[in-house]
Write a structure and sequence with these properties.
2 domains; 527 residues; Cytochrome p450; five-stranded mixed beta sheet; alpha+beta; 22 helices; globular; binds protoporphyrin IX containing FE
């Protein structure tokens, strides 16, 4: 009897949940709720497996604003440029990032930085990082990145055909694996500094792997589980924090001119508004945060670029010819690029922009609502057209979610939105150019959230780096890193695709290509 009741309990819960949604009158001030069979679990499977299809299907049924259940959390989504503007342009006291993310990020980054401090302190920390990403520093990085990529091709075991094969021999490499390795090598050689780059060949690499194992959607949903991966995360955080504080200590005792362009040096020389210098553990934890923020985003983007170039040899050829035109000498040898030159390469630029449009690494940007917040009527018009003058209120405690991914592939805005077409960025009158101008508008509205004036950009349908006060500060670095990596690879390799184009793996924090993810290559005659 007891057993029968136990078996029936879940069924009863499902029935009550369904009847509640179908029969009980709903508070008309709440946004529509996405229908779901399982209480607590809600729409976790549809959202988690394919957020893009989930959002488009929900928009069809419920309009631009709706709430779905995600493992017990109530998440209200606001789609389209107006939705992005509403959430990303909102006040941090209403739409709060710390409340949404700290349980995921603080165990990984460490205490007293980013979402473990009040927003105004984090904005100061972003200002410190921007100093480290000065034009002078970026200029010093191009050559270092070229050298790391060349070294990798010349010495890594995954490129044996490149190293010892004939010019016409085709080899193969795993794109996401190679790009992950090149990304961390180049980021540590430049931003993170000499000691971290040296540690990558030894202890640092394992610490990074263990820490990264604690930065997954499971950690976002369940901050503390009695699992080995959580324990490894905590041990790695403590050791990595010490790794950096030891570096800082040593540098204080033996200042070295060579280190002047890296982020540790930049952070060691700055002060909060009240005159206090950063404490060593704050510097350490900001460095960890930057490592985590930049690694998967850049390596995923780099992977998609290489895959598309292999799949579109004519674009790869245009990119190669652009390199030949600007950088090949009469002896058939390439010279190094400068940062200013890198920024003036239209094919390379369009390839990066288009890849970030089609595959933004972050598909969902979340905040937590601190006070009941009304949704502007222009944004919340229900799909059916009924009740157009209704004003929804998002209750305190809900998560809100903006998805630049949806506006970046919305057929209402973009022609052939799912096609990877870098040339859409060449038309000065086209939608892409317009979206780009709105995002970077030099003449438009600039806001200083505490880390220097940035274009607001919250209205644009193109926002791969977010918008508003939480807008990415790694953008110029990411462009430089990706541009240099891709240009160096394309100078050396001809690429081809021999498998179907991979799909999107949404089960990781950052959207990655699904496996297998391989391309074939051969060494170019002139490199
Ligand atoms: C914020 C994307 C590379 C550091 C963001 C946000 C996005 C983003 C969408 C907004 C997050 C939000 O509003 O919650 C990307 C992409 C990258 C990239 C697509 C590469 C292709 C980097 C790199 C760094 C970095 C290389 C560090 C050097 C940051 C930081 C923030 C941020 C510090 C601020 C977070 C906040 O204010 O809450 N990034 N990012 N990112 N990113 Fe990036």
């Amino acid at each position: 009897m007891l057993l029968l009741a136990a078996i029936n309990l879940p069924v009863i819960a499902v029935v009550i949940n369904v009847l509640r949604q179908l029969l009980l009158p709903r508070d008309p001030s709440l946004p529509p709720e996405v229908f779901h069979w399982l209480p607590f679990v809600g729409s976790a499977a549809s959202y988690g497996n394919d957020p893009m299809s989930f959002f488009f299907q929900c928009r069809e049924k419920y309009g631009d604003v709706f709430t779905f259940i995600l493992l017990g959390r109530r998440v209200t989504v606001a789609l389209g440029p107006k939705g992005n503007n509403f959430i990303l342009g909102g006040k941090s006291t209403t739409f709060n990032a710390e409340d949404a993310y700290t349980h995921l990020t603080t165990p990984v980054f460490g205490k007293d930085v980013v979402y473990d401090v009040p927003n105004e302190v984090f904005m100061e920390q972003k200002r410190f990082v921007k100093v480290g990403l000065s034009m002078d520093n970026l200029k010093a990085y191009v050559g270092m990145i070229e050298e790391e990529v060349e070294n990798f091709l010349n010495h890594d075991g995954q490129f044996l055909t490149y190293q010892i094969g004939d010019i016409n021999e085709w080899g193969q490499f795993d794109v996401s694996k190679v790009l992950a390795e090149i990304t961390i090598l180049t980021a540590s050689r430049t931003l993170q500094g000499r000691e971290v780059r040296e540690g990558l060949d030894k202890t640092f690499a394992q610490l990074y792997t263990d820490l990264d194992g604690g930065f997954t959607p499971i950690n976002f949903m369940f901050p503390n589980l009695p699992l080995e991966s959580y324990r490894k995360r905590d041990r790695a955080q403590a050791k990595m924090s010490k790794y950096y504080t030891d570096i800082i200590e040593k540098r204080r005792q033996n200042p070295n001119h060579e280190d002047e362009h890296d982020m540790i040096a930049a952070l060691m020389s700055q002060k909060y508004k009240d005159g206090r210098p950063l404490r060593d553990h704050e510097i350490a934890h900001i460095l960890i945060a930057l490592l985590m923020a930049g690694q998967h985003t850049s390596s995923a983007t780099g992977s998609w670029i290489v895959l598309h170039l292999a799949n579109n040899p004519e674009v790869a050829e245009a990119l190669y010819q652009e390199q030949v035109k600007h950088f090949m000498g009469p002896d058939g040898k390439f010279r190094s690029m400068t940062y200013d030159e890198l920024r003036e390469l239209p094919v390379l630029d369009s390839v990066i922009r288009e890849t970030l449009r089609r595959h933004p690494p972050i598909h969902s940007i979340m905040r937590k609502v601190r006070d009941d917040v009304p949704v502007p009527a222009t944004l919340a018009a229900p799909a059916s057209g009924k009740n157009r003058d209704r004003t929804y209120v998002i209750p305190k405690g809900h998560f809100v979610l903006a998805s630049p991914l949806v506006s970046q592939v919305d057929p209402k805005t973009w022609r052939d939105p799912l096609k990877w077409d870098p040339y859409r960025w060449s038309d000065p009158e086209g939608v892409a150019a317009q979206a780009y101008n709105e995002y970077y508008d030099e003449k438009g509205e600039k806001v200083d959230y505490g880390f220097g004036a940035v274009s607001k950009g919250t209205d644009s349908p193109y926002q791969p780096f977010g918008a508003g006060r939480h807008r990415c500060i790694g953008e110029q670095f990411a462009y430089l890193q990706l541009g240099t990596i891709v240009a160096t690879l394309i100078r050396k390799l001809e690429l081809r695709m021999e498998q179907p184009m991979p799909g999107h793996n949404y089960h990781t924090m950052i959207t990655m290509p699904t496996l297998p993810c391989k391309v074939v290559y051969r060494r170019r005659a002139f490199d």
